[in-house]
Specification:
Elements: H1 2-8, H2 13-18, H3 28-41, E1 48-52, H4 58-65, E2 71-76, H5 79-88, E3 95-99, E4 112-118, H6 127-137, E5 138-145, E6 155-162, E7 168-175, H7 178-188, E8 190-197, E9 203-209
Parallel strand pairs: 1-2, 1-4, 2-3, 4-5
Antiparallel strand pairs: 5-9, 6-7, 8-9
Length: 211
């Protein structure tokens, strides 16, 4: 797994800036759905949002473009992606960026209204450990799934990602089974899951806990 961690740090600066913008970009309807869910789920005018696996902060840019006010903290393990996130962050944004391990929660501190996984849970080596850490960091967990848990078998495979200059590095991609997802939710003592659908394959789940 150290190799997988290092691979996200292998991106060239140009490739890091383009990640999830000019390639791999999520559907517009999916981003809109996530924003609507955050607005609906918050009782505060300016909630605190922890973006786990923030990459180059394309989510923050979308929030700012849509006029969504929040105290934003982005966390990622990749130095090139964090550098790109800081460079792209609008001057008016209430934002900070932290180098930390989303799999374990190492390097992340504070408490937040929302911990958000935006197309991230499927690429983690330890979804269960990450969600356990997120539960301690936030009141609610919001997950945007590119591939929602809907199979009978949990599959994790190593794929290759082009990070610039023709270089390919490995990354993990998971298809999470329904049973594994339910097992994680049970261990988290999750009391309710709200599921929101858009017109693509994406889903947004909000996990609630007894506090």
């Amino acid at each position: 797994m150290d190799l997988l961690h290092r691979s996200w740090g292998s991106m060239t600066a140009d490739r890091a800036a383009a990640y999830l913008k000019t390639y791999g970009a999520p559907a517009e309807s999916s981003k809109r759905l996530l924003l609507e869910v955050l607005r609906e789920s918050s009782t505060r005018k300016c909630p605190s949002v922890l973006d786990l696996g923030c990459g180059n902060a394309q989510l923050l840019e979308y929030f700012c473009a849509e006029g969504y006010e929040c105290n934003y903290t982005g966390v990622d393990i990749s130095t090139p992606l964090l550098d790109a996130a800081r460079a792209a962050s609008p001057p008016s944004a209430e934002a900070q960026f932290v180098a930390g391990d989303v799999n374990s929660g190492e390097g992340i501190s504070g408490h937040f209204d929302f911990a958000v996984y935006s197309h991230v849970l499927e690429i983690l080596s330890s979804p269960e450990g990450s969600l356990q850490a997120a539960k301690e960091l936030a009141d609610k967990i919001v997950i945007r799934f590119f591939e929602p848990p809907d199979g009978d078998v949990d599959i994790a495979e190593v794929r290759n990602m082009e990070v610039g200059d023709g270089t390919l590095v490995p990354y993990l991609r998971r298809s999470m089974s329904r049973d594994y997802y339910r097992l994680i939710l049970s261990k988290l003592e999750c009391t309710r899951v709200d599921v929101y659908l858009d017109d693509s394959t994406d889903q947004v789940h909000v996990l609630h806990f007894e506090r």
